Amino acid sequence: MPNADLPILIVDDAKFSGAVIDRTLKAAGYTDVRTANSAQQGLSMLEQRPVSVLIADWLMPEMDGLELAGRVRQLDEATNHFTYIILLTAKEGSKALIHAFDNGVDDFVNKSSMNQQLLPRIYAADRIAAMQNRLLRENQLLVESNQKLRKNSLLDPLTGLGNRQYAIRKLTDTIRHSEMRGGAACLMLITIDNYEELKEQHDKEILRQVVISVTRRLRQLLRPLDIVARVSTQQFAVITHQPDLAQANASTYRRIYDALNIKEVKTEKGFIGVRAAMVMSAADSGTGFPPPEKMFSVTNGQMAQARSSGRLIVVKWRSSKKCEGDN
Question: What is the rounded CA–CA span in Å between residue 31 and residue 38?
Answer without folding.
Answer: 21
